[in-house]
Amino acid sequence: MSTASSSQPAMALPWLRPASASLLALTDDPPDASAIRLDPGLVLHALRYSRPTPDGATFALDEAILCQPGLSETAAALLGEATVSAPSDSNVLQLGQRLAHLASKLAAVMGLCSPDAAWCAGLLAPLGRYCGASDHHLSAARKLLARWRLPGWIQIAVGYLDLPLDEADGLGGHRGLNRILRAAIRRVGGESFPKFAREADGELDALAGRFAEDLPAYVEVPRDPVPELLPRLLRATARARGRSAQSWIAPLEDRIDHLVDQLAEARLDFDHRLRDAKLEALSEFAAGASHEFNNPLAVISGNAQWLKSREADPDKAGHLATIIRQTQRVHDLLTGTRQFSSPSAAKPAVHSVESLLGRVQRDIQTEADGLGIRIEVASACASFLLADGEQVRTAISHLVRNALEAVGQGGWIKLTSATAGSSVVIAVEDSGSGPAEDAQEHLFDPFFSGRSAGRGRGLGLPIAWALARNNGGDVRWDPTAPTRFALSLPLREAPKRQVA
Hints:
Elements: E1 15-16, H1 20-26, H2 33-36, H3 40-48, H4 63-66, H5 71-77, E2 84-85, H6 90-110, H7 115-124, H8 127-130, H9 137-147, H10 152-159, H11 165-170, H12 175-188, H13 202-212, H14 230-244, H15 246-310, H16 314-341, E3 349-352, H17 353-370, E4 374-379, E5 384-387, H18 389-404, E6 412-420, E7 423-430, H19 460-470, E8 474-477, E9 484-492
Helix pairs in contact: 5-14, 6-7, 6-12, 6-13, 7-12, 9-10, 12-13, 15-16, 16-19, 17-18, 18-19
């Protein structure tokens, strides 16, 4: 095993090989920090992975660092590099452990820095000697720390022990950590640091003296004689840890799915609120327009009828008849507009859902037969609602007639009903292709029709919506089943007597 002398260039400084025992401890779940802390090679490697770098007051050699992705595999990969060596001098390793124990104890009592930061600084204080340097071990440590870009506080604490404390602090290090490490060295490592600046620090030195009398015995970290097997073992462990991570990833994924569903529901609710606000504005406009149009329309129609009754010329009488028909058409449009904009007050009564659907089917069956379209009540719940029966039948009829105009010869229309919470939902579904994409946001706009010219007045769906709202319900198009419109109305308990 090669080592680096003091005359070697900086780039030839070796990296410390982690011990097999601490590498194996790193693969535990959670990692066994007590075994890892004794290995300077792996502590050095863990410090390199402490990104973002905590400072000397908050650093902790814990799972947040030891469980970082790739740490164990890259540590194992170091075993195959030519520039990797292992510290073989047990006296130097013993010194590092004694400094780590003493510095950590001083930090815990004095509160000048993180005990884990003090531990790492004490364990790595002999870093140059771990790498084989003797006379210039501090210079070697500085080069290695800088080469591997370790946190600044550990670079200054370990690499500049030969500077006076004030000058080391001026480089940006953590003063409390620097004081504690130097006090520990003065007590148990002075002979190994002959050029160490021996500033006295009364209180710390006194504590260090007392604590040094009860330091734990040296613990040798065993090293695997076949380290080439470790990378495979660590990769298998990493894969196993990845599989076990599913136990906490799965709930997070479920939470994300739940939030996505909530977002979709909120968006749908917003779309419906926006639609309702738009329809209410259109309703106010339509109410005013209907009133203003009716008066001149009545004058035109009345005069045309009077002239026709006195006209002997068949051609002129025919033109007057056309005028009367067109005024009647406009009158029908205005009647529908009033029904949308200001439906008459509902006269609620208890009605059977099954009975309502049956009546609508009978009313429209002849029209559907004439178009070659099959209409059926696929299912009807045995529920009741309190509403204006005539308005509800009209609303359902408009939904069915909308379907009649959407399907071709041989098509079908299904009426179904079911309860959903405190509502009865009556659905009208057909075999058509559903509304075109550019028509979907205008489905309930008065006078808008996605069909070809001359097919419908564009009032069926808006009237159905207005009558549903007039009875405490709503009408919605289901984008997940694009040929389905659903009318929801408040559910009522079954009556004790016969109902309409």
